[in-house]
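Table S4 entry, Succinate dehydrogenase.
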Amino acid sequence: MSILKIILVPLSLILSLFVWLCAGLLSCSGFAFKLASGLLSLLAIAVMITYSVKNGIILLVLAFLISPMGLPLLAVQGLGKLQDVNAAMKNFIHS
């Protein structure tokens, strides 16, 4: 069992650094995604009024995907799962 713990220590350190880096990138990109989503929503409404409802709806779906409730939320949830795995490894190492 101690050999497995020795192997898991550097892996846990690497995973901790990776999670820390990804969390920083997600927090920094949040502002850009909010701004892009808002601008794309305004463009979608303008397209719906002036050009085509179908194209406006497509743009609204794209705006939702880049909004904080779309794909970035999936990234945050995936990062949470990685943190859970890291916490389980640390609990195993310290037990």
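The helical segments are 2-50, 53-66, 71-94.
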